[in-house]
Design goal:
The protein contains nine helices and no strands. By secondary structure, it is mostly helical. It has two domains: about 150 residues, Up-down Bundle (ABC transporter transmembrane region fold); about 60 residues. Helix 3 packs antiparallel against helix 5. The radius of gyration is 26 Å and the shape is elongated. The two termini are about 35 Å apart.
Amino acid sequence: MTRLRPSEGVEGKAYDPVIARRLMGYLAPYRRRVILALALMVVSSLMGLAGPYLIRLAIDRGIRAANVTLLGWVTLAFVASRLLNWAAMYGRLNTMAQVGQEIIYRLRGELFNHLQEMALGFFARQEVGRLISRLVSDVGVMREMITWAIVAVANDLLTLGGIVLVLLSMNARLALLTMLVLPVMGGLANLWRVRARESYRAVRRAIGAVNAELQENIAGVQVVQAFARESFNARRFAEEI
């Protein structure tokens, strides 16, 4: 079995296709539920796009044309689209939450079993608090990614694509003029992404250091008190955080 490597000070790429394929492998047993979540995502996106169109229809052909009958039907359609959007979103989030919890349960079990097989030298080099941080904090972040991020990104891309198509169909010149800001938005988003990644890594390292310090002090509290090192350890812990 591959040996775990110390992660502190060793930062991988922002996107590693090998790791991504390994993570996607955990989704394979749940492909039906993932497909269901994606289908609900499509429904939610379509209902979200239908809202502005129905409002336009209500104003142009209902209110301005004094067509009360059409206005009533459009209002009912708008309410139905909102309810369907809510139901699809609830189903998608609930489905992916279940999938995420089951995957994390399996992953944590595999990590625990893997740690049991590591050599004693590995534990001599690693701080227990940092290992606990990996098993709890980092795996928890993966749960958030599986539960929210994967489908949310796909949903945002689908919604954005739908908005672009609607704009182009309504007024191509105005749509292209509106899209002039996209390069600026893309540059700002990329700048934020780089800074956010570095900040997240700094927080991740800090959490690992704090957990390691807490574990060592709690496990060795008798030794700390025997040598009257409470003040020294408190100052060192303050420096860690």
